[in-house]
Amino acid sequence: MPTAKTQANTTHTTELKSISVRLENRPGALAEAARTVAQAGVNIEGVEAEVLGQYGFFRFYTKDETKAEEALKKAGYIVTVTEILEVTLADRPGELARVFEILFQGNVNGESCFGASLPNQTSRFFLRVSDFGKAHRLLAQAGIKARRLAQA
After folding, report:
1. What gap in Å lies between CA 46 and CA 35, rounded to an integer?
2. What pLDDT, in 10s, does the model give residues 13-63?
3. Are 45 and 100 part of one and the same domain?
4. Distances from the Cα of 57 to the Cα of 53, 80, 101, angstroms
5. Residue 4 in this model has a pLDDT that exceeds 70
6. Exposure of 85 by Cβ count < 10 A (0-12 exposed, 13-18 middle, 19+ buried)?
7. How many CA atoms lie within 13 A of 151 on its CB side?
8. Residue 40: which of 8, 11, 74 has the closest Cα?
């Protein structure tokens, strides 16, 4: 359950969210959306963008999704906010496959994935799944670092 930060220095927690923005397939569309987010003072920590015919999408993760969503909507964008699960893995072959195999064995569908790795360090992926609680439990039981809650 989300909690609010109080004078007693308790921790504020919220579900991790990704923001998806519908964009026209034209030069400058992605730059304009990214600039809107930047002008709102929001840092983008993970990103994926793709064109699908006449339209495309710009999906990103930020710790300040409310501020980003408000700025984008005010600028006239169609915005969707969804819960995500952050998974941190070793940078080696087969790690992402292992995550999805664990989810599959637990009957959890992987609906979306975006992320990247730093060579010889760690990989950070953001997943949208059919059952967040179950996915988090399954991955934790397998010793995989998964985070459903963001701490501010």
Report:
1. 15
2. 457 788 999 999 999 999 999 999 999 999 998 889 998 899 999 999 888
3. no
4. 11, 10, 27
5. no
6. buried
7. 4
8. 74
For residues 121 and 106, give the distance between their C-alpha atoms in angstroms, rounded to a whole number.
28
Residues spanned by the domain of 132: 85-151
Residue 7 placed within a domain: no
Q: Which long-range CB contacts under 8 A does 127-134 form with residues at least 24 apart?
A: 127/84, 127/85, 127/86, 127/87, 127/99, 128/18, 128/82, 128/83, 128/84, 128/85, 129/85, 129/103, 132/83, 132/85, 134/106, 134/108
Alpha helix stretches (DSSP H) within the chain: 29-39, 65-74, 95-105, 132-141
pTM recorded for the entire structure: 0.76
CATH number at residue 119: 3.30.70.260
| Same-domain pairing of 102 and 124 | yes
What would the mean pLDDT of 117-130 be, rounded to a whole number?
88
Gap between the Cα atoms of 128 and 43, Å rounded = 21
Q: What phi, psi does 21 have (nearest 5°)? A: -120, 130
**Residue 47 shares a structural domain with residue 96:** no
